[in-house]
TrEMBL record:
<feature type="domain" description="DUF1996">
    <location>
        <begin position="83"/>
        <end position="298"/>
    </location>
</feature>
<feature type="region of interest" description="Disordered">
    <location>
        <begin position="1"/>
        <end position="32"/>
    </location>
</feature>
<protein>
    <submittedName>
        <fullName>DUF1996 domain-containing protein</fullName>
    </submittedName>
</protein>
<dbReference type="Pfam" id="PF09362">
    <property type="entry name" value="DUF1996"/>
</dbReference>
<dbReference type="InterPro" id="IPR018535">
    <property type="entry name" value="DUF1996"/>
</dbReference>
<feature type="region of interest" description="Disordered">
    <location>
        <begin position="49"/>
        <end position="72"/>
    </location>
</feature>
Amino acid sequence: MFRRRGRGNQQQPTRRPTPSPSPTAGGEDECADLGPFLTDFVDIRQVQPTSIDPPRGRGGSRGTFVSACGTNRNGHNNPDNFIVAPGVSNGAHHLHDYVGNLSTNGFSTDESLSAAGTTCRFGDRSTYFWPVLRDRKVDVNTGDPDGNVGQVLRARAVTLQFRGNAVSRVTAMPRFLRLITGDAKAATNGGANARAAWTCTGFQNRITTKYPLCPRGTGVVRILDFPSCWDGQNTDSANHRTHVVFPDQSGACPGGMKAVPQLRMTLVYSVPQGPSFAVDAFPEQQHNPITDHADFANVMPDRLMAFVVNCINRGRRC
């Protein structure tokens, strides 16, 4: 049974098959060694139901706040990552979808983000981004040096929900807090930092680390949960992880760390039937679904963040 909460439940990448000259899920012969492979897909109906959330304790915070930022209809895409590779063009080697802050690129700073426009309501200038999903059967972008070929599929729905802590109230995130979830190199690094969670609409109680093959009429869903236990001092750290960590299996934060609103991104896609889609990735990751990941930087006005915290701690849905 797959459970994403807690440190003891590490995801492990699927063993990769030896590339062969025969066609695979990636499409044509010449793309066979790029991945993904048929073993990277699973019929969602074959996945056992599970829970991805700890039970809420009596002292838990039950409210939510949703930041409505659209689905990137404005086409804000680039292969940068100012958190992990600041000051570098194509630092990610795969294409990102962005919502929220309109200026985000590899050279973004606190100052540039503060001055930019946003697609979000209520002046939320935060930046939310993730690797694109592609239909790899479509003969597009075939010259990409990193092997990210196919037609980009835009999410039909994007939900950016800030949630409470299972056992305590939450406190405000500091402005310019940087967060990452998942590991873009999990296929080679191992599963210690992997947080991939795939499912289908109507089957959200069935979570898998593989690409889900969904029944006709349902959509592919990516669930990206962010860490939510802050060290109380830093907006970033050398590995971009130790300043904000995940709660334990009970939902509690480690001693000395503060619970902040937990961001859950839920992305829904309409994809062609069959094993024909894949997430953009570093070339050596072979589009393994366990590499799914996302990034966030908080650029909410302080008054908005205070409103978010109040909604969550009072058990409201905002």
